[in-house]
Amino acid sequence: MLLSLMALGQPLAGYAQAEALPNYACIAPNVLFWKNIYGRYSLAQGVIHDKDDLSVIYEVVSFAAPQWQVLSSGNKAMVEQTKARYRAILKTLAAGRAPMTADEKRVLALFGPNPKPQALLAARGNMRFQLGQKERFREGVIRSGAYLESIRRIFADHNLPADLCYLPHVESSYDYRAYSKSGAAGIWQFTRDTGRRYLVVNNSLDERLDPLRATEAAALFLKNNYKVLGDWSMAITAYNHGTTGMCNARKKKGCYETIFKEFDGQRFGFASRNFYSEFLAAREVAKNYRQYFGPLQLARPVRTQPVRITNFTPVRDLARHFGLTMDTVRQLNPALRDSVLLGRKLVPKGYQFHIPATSNGQLANPGSKVASQTRAALHRQP
User: Fold this and answer.
1) 33 falls within a domain
2) What is the mean pLDDT of the segment spanning 103-132?
3) Which residues lie closer than 8 Å to 73 by C-beta, 6 or more apart?
4) How far apart are CA 35 and CA 359, in angstroms?
5) Least confident segment among 69-78, 127-136, 334-343
6) Is the pLDDT of residue 196 over 70?
7) Model's pTM, two decimal places?
8) Which residue range is the domain that position 312 belongs to?
9) CA 117: distance to chain centroid?
C-alpha cells in the first residue's frame, strides 16, 4: 500500500510541517545530555550517570588518551572503581548519615530535597557509563558534506521533514562503510532483512552502503512509521525500536511523553528510550557545528551521473571505458561488493553505474574490442 501511494505521488498530510519534530519538556535533560556527549565531551572523557535520570551526573572521568570505541582494560577498571565509590556514597547517605565530604554533599544534592532512602539505594544499581563522542561526531559532520544536500532533497521530494537528514549522525556518524555487530550496514544502519524490503542486498550489490539509495529506503521506512503512528517522535523512535514495538507502546501508554516516562516494555531499553532525544541533540549540534567544533572544511558534495548497465560487464572494463581508477569506481559506487570490484563477479545487468558528473564518457581506446563490447552494455541516463 505504501509503495502504491508513493507511485501515485499522493503526499500524506502533516509530514513536512515545520512543527512536525516536537520537543518535550520531559526529554530536555536527555537532549542536553546527548548534546554534551556529541559536542562537549571528547573520546578521552566519559560520563558516569543515572541511566533513567540523565540529569544525575556523578562524575566526568578523564583518560590519558582517546578511547574511540572500546575502553582499555585499565580504563574499564578506573570506571568500575569510580562507580564503586559512588555506590558506597549512596549507601552511606541511604543509611541516614549526614553528608560530610564534598562528594557526599554534591551527590545528595543531585536527588533534590529530602530524597527517600529507597531512591538512593535504587540509584546504586542504576549507574551507567557513556564515552564522549566529540571527535567522532566532528568527523561525521565533515563526512556529511558529501551527501547532506542530496539527502535533504530526497526527504523534501517525499514530503518529509528535511531535518531527518541528521538522523545518520546517531546511527553511523555518516560513515557509509559502517557495519554493526548485528550486521546492520551503511549510514542508515539497515539490517539485512529490513534492507531487502527496499534495497538490493546480495553477493554482488549491497545498496545499504550507497548513501543515496539507502536514504530513499529510509524515507519509505520513516514515512510508513509516520503513517502508522501519526507522530514523528514515535516514528523516529520506531526506527530503533521497530514499528510493531512502538504500536504496542502507543496502545499501552498513548502519547510519546507518557511512553518516554512510563513504558517499561522488555525491549524498550536505554537505547530506544533515548533515541529521539539523541536525534534532537544531533540535529542541534550538526546544524550549529561551528559553535561546537569551530570552522570545519566539509567534504565536497559528490556529483555523479548514472549510466544503466544493460549487460553483465566486468567492472574493470567499465573503469577503462570511462578512464576511471578503481579507487574512483569504489568511491562513486559504494554498493558494489568486493566480489565485483575484485573481478570474481560481473557488474549486474540493470545496475546504475555512477561516473563523475563532469565526465564526458568518451572511450579511452574507442577502436578496441573491449571498448565496443563495453559501449554496447551502456545506456546513458538522461
Assistant:
1) no
2) 96
3) none
4) 41
5) 69-78
6) yes
7) 0.88
8) 304-380
9) 39
CB 198 within 8 A of CB 188: no
204: in domain = yes
Same domain, 110 and 144: no
Round the CA-based radius of gyration of the chain to a whole number and report it: 25
The type of residue at 112 is G
Give the phi and the psi of residue 288 in degrees, each rounded to 5: -115, 45
Comparing CA positions, the residue from 318, 330, 326, 332 lying closest to residue 363 is: 318
Rounded to whole angstroms, the Cα distance separating 90 from 84 reads 10
- Count of structural domains within the chain: 3
Residue pLDDT, tens place only, 142-181: 999 999 999 999 999 999 999 999 999 999 999 999 999 8
- Which of 132, 155, 186 delimits the end of a domain? 132
Question: Is the distance from CB of 107 to CB of 93 less than 8 angstroms?
Answer: yes
Instruction: Give the 3-state secondary structure of residue 134.
Output: helix
- Mark whether 16 and 58 lie in a shared domain: no
- Nearest of 47, 26, 49 to residue 38 by alpha carbon: 47
Residue 173 lies in a domain: yes
Count of positions (residues) in the chain: 382
Residues 264, 141: one domain?
yes
Query: Is 356 a member of any domain?
Result: yes
For 197-211, how does the pLDDT look when each residue is reduced to its tens digit (9 = 90+)?
Answer: 999 999 999 999 999
CA 152, CA 146: separation in Å to the nearest integer? 12
Of 5-14, 234-243, 279-288, minimum mean pLDDT range: 5-14
293 and 39 Cβ atoms separated by less than 8 Å: yes
Mark whether 272 and 161 lie in a shared domain: yes
Report the pLDDT value the prediction gives residue 371, as an integer from 0 to 100.
45
Measured from the Cβ of residue 284, the count of other Cβ atoms closer than 10 Å reads 20
Start-to-end Cα distance in the chain: 29
| Biggest alpha carbon–alpha carbon distance for the chain | 91
Asked whether residue 17 falls in the same domain as residue 115, the answer is no
List the grid coordinates of 236: 523516529
| Element at 308 (helix H, strand E) | strand 304-309
CA distance linking residue 32 with residue 321, whole number of Å: 52
